[in-house]
UniProtKB/TrEMBL annotation, chain A:
It is a multi-pass membrane protein. It is found in: Cell membrane. It comes from Sphingobacterium hungaricum. One of its GO terms (molecular function) is ABC-type transporter activity. The chain crosses the membrane at residues 21-44, 179-202, 214-237, 243-262, 303-326, 338-358, 365-384, 390-415. Residues 19-412 form the ABC-2 type transporter transmembrane domain. This is ABC transporter permease.
TrEMBL record, chain B:
Residues 2-229 form the ABC transporter domain. GO terms for molecular function: ATP binding; ATP hydrolysis activity. It comes from the Bacteria. Coiled coil: none annotated. It comes from Sphingobacterium hungaricum. The keyword Metal-binding does not apply. CDD domains: ABC_putative_ATPase. Belongs to the ABC transporter superfamily. InterPro entries: AAA+_ATPase, ABC_transporter-like_ATP-bd, ABC_transporter-like_CS, ABC_transporter_ATP-binding, DrrA1/2-like_C, P-loop_NTPase. This is ABC transporter ATP-binding protein. The keyword ATP-binding applies. Keywords: ATP-binding, Nodulation, Nucleotide-binding, Transport.
Length: 439, 312
């Protein structure tokens, strides 16, 4: 038992002390959060700062006086001819962004205008001008139909859905499908890549010990099973360390970013919409409220606990398989033919999770996949944000860990033979033979 | 020390060890000989509990081999290596700890050995920065660091230049004098006579010969002697003593030599008495087959017997 601790310690420390580990651990959240914050910051800043002059030539006659100046736009009606204005346009550049809006006589019928800019046309300015113009068209149309345009504008047609899930006990629970789906996606991606990333590290470690020929020295001191488990646990702890550091660093950075750069509502809006071109103010007004209550309705402790349990279970299960593969081959390229079929269940679940599983998290397929141990680490974690009965989670976790124990036993039997085999072309058939050798 | 009894090890269609029994006495250097693929490494792995035999048992100081014995054995495998990216000192501590030493003890003993073999400056180096020969030295120290009672060396001299081979050989002899039993596995015979007290010869998964080197050689001695001489005054000696010996080969002339085979019961003293009146005896040497000759003889004759009748 003491020896397995030594192995865990070496596997853990030798990786955590590596420069590349520190680099990835610290750079990743900085890049991620920093990049995200930068996008939000600049997109908001560009909206606030962006100011443009628009010179208007109104052939129609009634449009120009309906255009309203605001903090982004200043309209200047001109009586000069189009040619003169076009010629003057580039000269006005130093006064700020200057554009020329030409409104033809048949504007209300053709709904066509010309918008000329010195330099590259700015999409968000164009969007704002276009918004105002379409309002003018609507108002004009209502007027000609004899409808009071002001009373129409006072009608707000935005619908706020308060979706509730009725539990078997008759209780009502806030169901936030959108948020749940988002969390499910993120968790699914993290778990898929983490299981892969650290599973492959286990395989690499085994191949390294095999090719450097230290393996026989080690297993004359410890049992192959101890070495295999020590490696799996050690690398798993590296993974958990990395996750925890990422969570701490990201939360820290996010707090810093939100308090110093932007106010909270904007971030919330940005997170739901994720589209910098959208009008931030509008979005935060209509969905900011929903977002906060939605976040409160999500049971984060439960999700984080389940995530850790299923990540650990999935990682253990797959890394035991990766260890067996690593023992059977002499190089990483040779390993590819085995890693592909082994990870196929995970890959399929991963692909399914984006459509089928999140669409119908309590459907037959999703339920079955969340019990099958080779798919449950992803399938269950996708379902959990939507709410899964506790007994299902426990059953699935028990099946997962029981399968791991069985698979580790099988893998260890292949491993102990494989690590001493050199230059032999491994195949699944060969591995079955090894499995049957007496220990 | 070790009593190996009726070990059988089967790999799918290949039988690596077929009813092998060997007794390895305590405090001796024991040569485990045999050509490549004979089953030496399979046997060594069973002694190290890396694999288990299909049948048979091994007694270590009278007890059936178990996990407690692992820390009392030091093993230098033929396929050996170290973690390339790990510092030598750190790596040695790790390997010593795996053999049950405390960190403190490990450090102390590594320092002792590094000083002894002039490796002090290697502590912070990485394995990949050392030459092949230096790595072998590190590996040797790792094998003996925990002061094992039984040291198993599989081709220990491969990869060493003659100078370092000499140093390592002296270390092995010193460890043996301090009481360690040594199993020396090799297919190179040159060093066997120099080092080994006892040997076992394995070929084609079977033990074909074992015992003390002295006895084995006696078994193969043919009572043949080579005598270097000079004749008296150009007179050719007659050598006609048919009741004492027969002449195998006679080469008169400048560096005259005669090879004689004694008859059973004839004593060398009588032969000398008979020869003294005929020649100046300069040197007399018993012609004993070397371990090398015995090895070749045994292996080839067995191979001939087992492989000639059938084609696999």
């Amino acid at each position: 038992m003491n020896k397995i601790l030594l192995i865990i310690q070496r596997e853990y420390l030798s990786r955590v002390k590596k420069k590349s580990f520190l680099l990835i651990t610290f750079i990743f959240p900085i890049l991620f959060i920093g990049g995200y914050a930068a996008v939000i910051y600049f997109s908001i800043k560009s909206k606030e700062d962006k100011h443009a002059f628009v010179r208007v030539i109104d052939e129609q006659g009634s449009v120009a006086n309906q255009l309203e100046n605001n903090k982004n736009l200043t309209f200047v009606t001109t009586n000069e001819s189009l040619q003169q204005e076009i010629a003057a346009l580039p000269k006005n550049e130093d006064k700020g962004n200057t554009n020329l809006l030409y409104i033809p006589k048949d504007f209300y019928e053709s709904r066509k205008i010309e918008f000329l800019s010195a330099g590259k046309p700015n999409i968000s300015i164009q969007g704002k001008v276009s918004d105002q113009l379409s309002d003018i068209i609507k108002t004009n149309a209502y007027k000609s139909m004899g409808i009071n345009a002001d009373s129409i504008k006072s009608v707000n047609s935005d619908v706020i859905i308060a979706s509730k899930e009725v539990l078997a006990t008759g209780e009502e629970k806030d169901g936030q499908t959108g948020i749940a789906m988002g969390i499910a996606f993120v968790l699914c991606i993290i778990i898929y890549f983490a299981v892969f990333l650290y599973g492959v590290q286990v395989m690499r470690g085994v191949i390294e010990e095999k090719t450097s020929r230290i393996i026989e020295v080690i297993i004359s001191s410890v049992k192959p099973f101890q070495l295999m488990m020590g490696k799996i646990v050690g690398i798993g702890m590296v993974g958990i360390t990395q996750f925890l550091l990422w969570i701490i660093l990201s939360t820290g950075l996010l707090t810093v970013a939100t308090t110093f750069l932007i106010n909270k509502e904007d971030v919330a809006a940005q997170m739901t919409q994720n589209s910098p071109i959208q009008d931030v103010e509008k979005v935060s007004q209509s969905s900011g409220f929903d977002f906060n209550t939605a976040l409160e309705s999500i049971n984060f402790p439960e999700i984080i606990t389940c995530f850790l349990i299923f990540f650990i279970g999935g990682y253990l299960l797959y890394s035991a398989l990766f260890a067996a593969v690593g023992s059977a081959v002499d190089s990483e390229t040779e390993a590819n033919q085995f890693t592909m079929p082994i990870t196929l269940p995970l890959l399929i679940t991963y692909a399914l999770s984006f459509a089928v599983l999140t669409d119908d998290p309590n459907g037959t397929l999703a339920t079955w996949l969340s019990f099958i141990p080779f798919t449950s680490p992803i399938a269950m974690i996708v379902r959990i944000p939507f709410g899964v009965p506790l007994w299902e989670i426990i059953t699935s976790a028990v099946i997962l860990f029981a399968t791991f124990i069985f698979v580790a036993w099988v893998a260890a039997r292949i491993y102990r033979v494989g690590i001493l085999m050199y230059g032999k072309k491994a195949s699944f058939k060969e591995m079955i033979k090894w499995f049957n050798y007496k220990a | 020390m070790l009593d190996i009894r009726h070990i059988v090890k089967q790999y799918a269609s290949h039988r690596a060890l077929d009813d092998v029994s060997i007794f390895i006495p305590s405090g001796k250097i024991f040569g485990l000989l045999g050509p490549n693929g004979a089953g030496k490494t399979s046997l060594i792995r069973i002694i190290n509990q890396i694999t288990a035999p299909d049948s048979g048992e091994i007694l270590f100081d009278g007890q059936p081999l178990n996990q407690d014995h692992i820390n009392r054995i030091g093993y230098l495998p033929e396929e050996r290596g170290l973690y390339k990216k790990m510092q030598i000192g750190e790596q040695m501590i790790y390997l010593a700890q795996l053999k049950g030493l405390s960190k403190q003890d490990a450090k102390q003993r590594i320092k002792f050995w590094f000083e002894k073999l002039q490796m002090e400056t290697w502590w912070d180096k990485k394995v990949e920065d050392l030459s092949k020969g230096m790595q072998q030295k590190v590996q040797f120290v790792a094998t003996v660091i925990h002061d094992p009672e039984l040291i198993i060396l599989d081709e220990p001299f491969s990869g060493f230049d003659p100078v370092n081979a000499e140093i390592i050989q002296n270390e092995i002899l010193e460890l043996n004098q301090k009481g360690a039993t040594i199993i020396y596995s090799t297919h190179r015979m040159e060093s066997v006579e120099e080092l080994c007290d006892n040997i076992a010869l394995i070929n084609k998964s079977k033990k074909i010969l074992d015992g003390p080197v002295k006895d084995i050689k006696k078994q193969y001695q043919t009572n043949t002697f080579t005598i270097d001489y000079t004749a008296f005054d150009g007179q050719e000696p007659a050598f006609n003593f048919p009741d004492l010996f027969e002449i195998v080969e006679n080469k008169p002339g400048e560096d005259a030599k005669v090879k004689i085979k004694l008859h059973d019961g004839a004593s060398l003293n009588n032969v000398l008495l008979a020869l003294i009146p005929q020649i100046h005896i300069q040197q007399i040497i018993e012609t004993i087959p070397s371990m090398h000759d015995i090895f070749i003889h045994q292996v080839t004759s067995i191979n001939y017997l087992t492989t000639s009748p059938s084609y696999e």
